[in-house]
């Protein structure tokens, strides 16, 4: 896989103008207010995972319009006081998988809340999911989620997803075993894009770990990559030839660059310079707009897998430094 985007020196300076609707903040304030009209109704049911050092709970809560969102909630067994919590968001088409796949954070002494993305994971053998999306929009779409309800920001799929994710932070903060002052949002690809948005929507979180984020700088992404999921947008526009203005207006409410400009918490990003799924310039566009303290790890020779386990080590050390400085 060749280097195909701007040189690294140019990427570090790449800060494009934001395509931002005038009512961006009002739209999201109203969206969260509508979501908060429903009680969280969080439930944590003990689950026998055969893990001896971790407590596992089958978790569920009320997301957008009260729709039930599922996940796993894991705690280090025998913690004597409330612990930090990582709220983990999942990559495109994945579900929550199995509890044993999420033990790294409890091994480090943290709780982890693995939050499913509504409507995804039904066909993912690598990480099956269980959460439905009762709202589907009222317009034709390409296969996948990127164009579901895309003709209007009110009906766009990711409005529901981001509202669910913001509610998940509230669920984590409400759990008696969690130190609500030390909640982190985290994810890669789609999960990174969701974490990026939630860090802006819930500035009470203490940090954001954002790996190779999707859902960011849409216009450039669709122009320079031929990979899914961004190609879902291209296929839609190639069929709906007069929809471009409406589509990109909708996407402007969900663009990670606009959320990044509102992100004030400490953030650790990662980017892969050979990533043709979430091109490096789209990641740097958001990172360079991030308004709070920030660091970025660059993986020069990787595609969308990014840093993998090496990046997880970076994150573990980052949080240890971050919280040590606050103690």
Automatic annotation (TrEMBL):
The record's InterPro entries line, in alphabetical order, gives: AB_hydrolase_fold (IPR029058), AXE1_dom (IPR008391), CE7 (IPR039069)
Q: Which GO terms describe its biological process?
A: polysaccharide metabolic process
Q: Which Gene3D superfamilies match?
A: alpha/beta hydrolase
Residues noted as binding substrate in the record, renumbered to the chain: 92
**Stretches assigned to the Acetyl xylan esterase domain:** 1-321
- Residues annotated as the enzyme's active site: 189, 275, 304
**A single GO molecular function term of this UniProt record:** carboxylic ester hydrolase activity
Show the Pfam families listed in the entry.
Answer: AXE1 (PF05448)
**Name of the molecule in the record:** Cephalosporin-C deacetylase
| Species this protein is from | Thermostaphylospora chromogena
């Amino acid at each position: 896989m060749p280097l195909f985007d701007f040189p690294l020196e140019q990427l570090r300076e790449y800060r494009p103008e934001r395509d931002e609707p005038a009512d961006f903040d009002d739209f999201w304030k109203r969206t969260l207010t509508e979501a908060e009209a429903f009680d969280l109704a969080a439930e944590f049911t003990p689950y026998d995972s055969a893990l001896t050092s971790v407590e596992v709970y089958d978790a569920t809560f009320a997301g957008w319009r009260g729709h039930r969102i599922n996940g796993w909630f894991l705690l280090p067994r025998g913690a004597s006081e409330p612990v930090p919590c990582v709220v983990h968001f999942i990559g495109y088409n994945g579900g929550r998988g199995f509890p044993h796949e999420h033990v790294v954070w409890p091994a480090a002494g943290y709780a982890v809340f693995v939050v499913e993305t509504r409507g995804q994971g039904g066909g993912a053998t690598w990480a099956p999911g269980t959460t439905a999306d009762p709202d589907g929009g009222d317009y034709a779409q390409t296969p996948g989620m990127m164009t579901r309800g895309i003709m209007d920001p009110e009906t766009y799929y990711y409005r529901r997803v981001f509202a669910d994710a913001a509610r998940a932070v509230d669920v984590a903060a409400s759990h008696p075993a969690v130190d609500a002052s030390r909640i982190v949002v985290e994810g890669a690809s789609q999960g990174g894009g969701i974490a990026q948005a939630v860090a802006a929507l819930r500035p009470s979180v203490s940090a954001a770990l954002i790996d190779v984020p999707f859902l960011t700088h849409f216009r450039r992404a669709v122009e320079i990559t031929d990979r899914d999921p961004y190609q879902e947008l291209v296929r839609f526009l190639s069929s709906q030839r007069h929809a471009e203005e409406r589509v990109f207006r909708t996407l402007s409410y969900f663009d990670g660059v606009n959320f990044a400009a509102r992100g004030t918490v400490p953030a650790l990003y990662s980017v892969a310079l050979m990533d043709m799924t979430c091109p490096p310039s789209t990641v740097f566009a958001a990172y360079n707009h991030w308004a709070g303290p920030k660091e970025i790890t660059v993986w020069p020779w990787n595609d969308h897998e990014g840093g993998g386990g090496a990046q997880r080590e970076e994150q573990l050390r980052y949080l240890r430094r971050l919280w040590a400085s606050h103690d």
